[in-house]
Design goal:
Largest sheet: 6 strands, mixed
Number of domains: 1
CATH architecture: 3-Layer(aba) Sandwich
Strand content: 25-35%
Number of strands: 10
Shape: globular
Oligomer: single chain
CATH topology: Rossmann fold
Structural class: alpha/beta
CATH superfamily: P-loop containing nucleotide triphosphate hydrolases
Strand order of the largest sheet: 6-7-8-3-9-10
Length: 237
């Protein structure tokens, strides 16, 4: 199975005045295409720093990172922005939708940055909205949608570029338990279609949806284990 993510001996050191803080201390792991991985750990464990590096939002101080076979280590800021838009889809706790923009246009945003023509953008966005169960809600503004529906818009936006990986940061953090179950059910369905998902969460019941759990403590991985869930259906070439 090909690795879509490969981290090798990642260190991340932050310098604050005359103090240094090592947030990551030699982190290594591979994630295969089609996996659903939960990253867990207490505040300050290194999980968020790791997620920022995976998302090409931060650079490691040392170590190697291959994203879908591409070495991102020596890339410029513009190159990182480009690969972030092409290879990654992001889902955040706070939805991060444009309040005065209809749902369909929120979903189209990554395609705008990619330079696609408006007709092609609209077609792809409609498919993504249907994929997350929001057909018919295209022209609703975020204020006209429930929290769960807003997160579905955010997931559609993450899917629309057909990314190699979806990175979800506490995706149920602003949702009640019933809606959280619906959103995690959606992630499970997407994963069964072969979509690779990496999710940061502090909630064990949310992490239980993933097929693999990586736990951080004090900048290191203390456990990396399969949860025993049935492997998803993999994409075929």
């Amino acid at each position: 199975m090909n690795s879509v993510i490969s981290l090798s001996d990642i260190h991340r050191v932050f310098i604050m005045g005359d103090q240094t803080f090592e947030a990551l201390k030699g982190v290594s792991f591979d994630i295969a295409a089609g996996e659903f991985v939960a990253i867990m750990g207490a505040s300050g464990s290194g999980k968020s720093t790791s997620m920022n590096i995976l998302g090409c939002l931060d650079r490691p101080t040392s170590g190697g990172y291959l994203l879908d076979g591409v070495d991102v280590g020596g890339m410029t800021t513009d190159q990182l922005a480009d690969i972030r838009n092409k290879k990654l889809g992001f889902v955040f706790q706070g939805f991060n939708l444009l309040a005065r923009t209809p749902a369909i246009e929120n979903v189209e945003l990554p395609l705008v940055y990619a330079g696609l023509h408006s007709k092609e953008r609209r077609q792809k966005a409609l498919v993504a909205m249907e994929q997350v169960g929001l057909a018919g809600k295209e022209n609703n503004h975020p204020s006209q949608l429930s929290g769960g529906q807003q997160q579905r818009v955010a997931i559609a936006r993450a899917l629309v570029n057909n990314p190699a990986v979806i990175l979800a940061d506490e995706p149920t953090g602003n949702l009640d338990s019933s809606t959280s179950e619906e959103i995690m059910g959606l992630f499970t369905d997407l994963n069964r279609q072969g979509i690779t998902i990496i999710m940061v969460t502090h909630e064990t019941d949310v992490a239980a949806y993933a097929g693999r759990r990586i736990t951080f403590r004090d900048g290191r991985i203390i456990s990396d284990s399969q949860t025993g869930l049935v492997s998803p259906v993999r994409k075929t070439a």
